[in-house]
Specification:
By secondary structure, the protein is mainly α. Helix content is 97%, strand content 0%. It is elongated. The N and C termini lie far apart (180 Å).
C-alpha cells in the first residue's frame, strides 16, 4: 500500500512535469496562434488602409491632372485676352488720334463757316429788302420756266422714242438699209 501510494505519488509527480510541459506547449501554441491571428488581422488592416490610400492617391492624381489642364486652358485664355486687350488698346489710340484730328478739322471748318457767314451777311446786308424780294421773284420765275422746259423735253423725248419704235416695227427692211448705209459712211 505504501508502495502503491509512493508509486502513485511518484507516477503523479512524474506526470505532473509532463502535464506542465504539455500545458506550457499548449499555452505557447495558443499564444502563437493568437499572435498569428493578430498579425493576420493587422496585415489585412494595413492592406485595406494601403488600398484606400492608393485609391485616394489615384483620385488626387486625377484631380491634379484635371487642375493642370484647367490651369493651361486658363493661361491660354489669359494670353489671348491680353493680346486682344493690346489690339484694342492700339485701335483705341488710333481712334483717339482720328477723333482729335476730326475735332481740330471741325473747329477749323466752324471758323470758316462763321467767317463765310459774316462775309455773306456783309454782302447781303448791303442790298435793301426790295432788291431781295425782286431777286427771289426772279429766281422763282426762272425755276418755273425751267420746270416747264424740262417737262416739254420729256414729252418730246417720249414722243420720239415711240415714233422710233413704230418705225422699227413698220419697216424692218428700211432699218437694214439704214444700217448698211451707216456702215458705208
Amino acid at each position: 500500500l505504501a508502495d502503491t501510494k509512493r508509486e502513485k505519488k511518484h507516477s503523479g509527480s512524474c506526470k505532473q512535469p509532463i502535464i506542465q510541459d504539455l500545458m506550457k506547449e499548449m499555452e505557447k501554441e495558443i499564444t502563437e496562434r493568437l499572435l498569428k491571428n493578430e498579425a493576420t488581422e493587422q496585415k489585412q488592416k494595413f492592406e485595406s488602409e494601403l488600398a484606400e490610400t492608393r485609391n485616394a492617391l489615384q483620385v488626387a492624381k486625377d484631380a491634379l491632372t484635371e487642375k493642370s489642364k484647367e490651369i493651361e486652358r486658363t493661361r491660354a485664355l489669359e494670353s489671348r485676352a491680353f493680346q486682344d486687350k493690346e489690339e484694342l488698346r492700339s485701335k483705341l489710340e488710333v481712334a483717339c488720334e482720328e477723333r482729335d484730328r476730326f475735332e481740330k478739322e471741325l473747329a477749323l471748318l466752324k471758323k470758316q463757316v462763321e467767317s463765310l457767314a459774316e462775309e455773306n451777311g456783309k454782302l447781303v446786308g448791303h442790298q435793301n429788302l426790295n432788291q431781295k424780294i425782286q431777286y427771289l421773284v426772279k429766281l422763282k420765275k426762272d425755276n418755273a420756266r425751267l420746270i416747264e422746259e424740262v417737262e416739254k423735253l420729256r414729252v418730246e423725248n417720249t414722243f420720239l422714242k415711240n415714233s422710233k419704235k413704230r418705225t422699227l416695227l413698220e419697216d424692218p427692211l428700211q432699218i437694214q438699209i439704214d444700217n448698211s448705209q451707216n456702215s458705208f459712211e
